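Check my protein:
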Amino acid sequence: MPFLIELLADPATSERDEILGLLTSLAIGYDESWLPDPFPVASYRRRAVGGGQVLRAAPAPTGDEDDGRYRYWESLDEQDQDRMFAHVELSVYDAVRAGVPLYCALLADEDPSVRLAAAYALAWFGEDALAVGGPLASAAGDARAEIAATALVALGLVGTGDPAAERVVRAALADDRDLVRWGAAVAHARLRGPAADPAAAAELLSWAGGDGPTRREVPFLDGDVSGLAGLALRQVGDAYAGAGFDALLARIPAVSGPEALPIVGEALRRAFPDGRLAPGVRFADLDGRQQRLLRALADSPGTWGWGGAPVFGNFMGMVLGYGLPFNPEGMRTFVDGR
């Protein structure tokens, strides 16, 4: 990890944005695991306590064919395994975190792709909020809309608690660039929650329910700006619950593959707060919100597939997790009561 950070610090290194992307992935994995919330580093630190001792207790290898370590790891109970793996993952995270001062400096780099990657990387280091808040607030004024928007979302995720940073986010809600307004709305929802301005909620509703394309220039969720807006709507509270659900349903026919996961996943979370249905439940037994969602899924078979496959595996697993039919034909049969 130090070697990668050293390479990143050298302006002569090519593809520094790719190095930043690699470092960020090593630190947090896939961002869809965490959004719309920050990386849960405090939870990892609690879980990792004692993990180093568990790891060091593994027997030293005695040869290429020695599987003693593997057998040791397999013999651990669930608590010790979790403790050990949390320790390993946290060690990687902290190794990447050591580069935070450099990432802040790279927000002013001449290369816009480096500035963008730096803003995205800083989004995940909330423990350094006081150090990164000022540089991110400055980056929110970048002339490139995708960089400004990414810096704004990052400000929301790190949660600096700085009133000046919140003013930057609030002012960006009136920006004439739609992508910047999107970033400001996502950040504002994260920072203010149910006290968010109506303008931020309206912006999120517009993005979540629209049929706009993916914005690949934005790193969060691989550019699925509508998906992140849909996730952020949960943070603005019950006042927008009905409108938020309507927006999610409106978006369903326009998405498929990975882009269907945040929209349909959030709709399922709202419609089925108790989780998996009990065996034998019929469509007629469901409430109005649940029925509306399942009708939308039955009416949108294209939402289920990806890349020529009629059903995307991740989508199938998500729906099955709620005890629902795993393909559009089965959903149609269930909805029709057949």
